[in-house]
Fold:
Amino acid sequence: MAETQRKYKTKQGEAVSAYLAERPDSYLSVDEVWSALVAAGSRVGRSTVYRKLESMASEGSALKATAPGGEARYRIASSSATGQLVCLACGRAFALDCHMVEEFSDHVLSHHGFRIDPARTVLYGLCESCRGV
Amino acid sequence: MAETQRKYKTKQGEAVSAYLAERPDSYLSVDEVWSALVAAGSRVGRSTVYRKLESMASEGSALKATAPGGEARYRIASSSATGQLVCLACGRAFALDCHMVEEFSDHVLSHHGFRIDPARTVLYGLCESCRGV
DNA sequence: TACGATTTGAAAACAAATTTCAATTTCAAT
DNA sequence: ATTGAAATTGAAATTTGTTTTCAAATCGTA
Structure:
């Protein structure tokens, strides 16, 4: 099991969360984060990036979406998005900022007895460019 | 790439879809299906179960949900449901039959440019009994 | 039945994520 | 500043889930 808390601040951990924070609306894969950091000169291991992103997700400071290919993607939690979209064609993830998300989940809760957790839910479909229009 | 069409009927393929049809409300992992079939006496390979479930999902006769754990789960496509609910606590799956699903996805398409595919989307959250009330 | 096309399945290949563990780093207490 | 216990790192190994390979078996049509 991955550790859920980290008590010491480290350069590597800071670099990861800083990089996520720089891209508030992108869902990034572990390797994207890792290779960007390495390209930028910080020497950090892949496993450290895995660990940091996972711990951010479990403490709520990052959102995690599992893309169709199977790899996890993360985005910083501070943005205002209410939902998560993943394109089945290109695999890219998008943040959805829409008042209807809350209306819809409220309705499902009151009328169907199920409390949707939007942070854990990924809406799959086709993004604008993959729809061919 | 997995084949998306199958032209010949085979015992193994029939066994897989028959087993899924026997459990209309369960999301089953590949290994659950495979070991149940083997336990029941039919000699079938794991790869065949993978292939058949994947082809059922892509032709629409099964629904695929990638669970938080990371492994894919499949359930037979049910006729009237407009959405799929999976409880994060107990793991059970529920069919959601709700007019707002269509309203919501229409809105996301027209206002946000993303066509949600409800058959491929699983809404995660807490079911009535796991909410403890 | 005979034939070409499809499917099977065991094993190998693959890919993403996790774990291992010795070396390093952090931070609080001197 | 120095110490040392606890936490973190990272390269490599391992695990886990899935896909591919390819020869053999099976399917369905002629």
User: Anything to note?
Assistant: The longest strand of chain B covers residues 62-66.
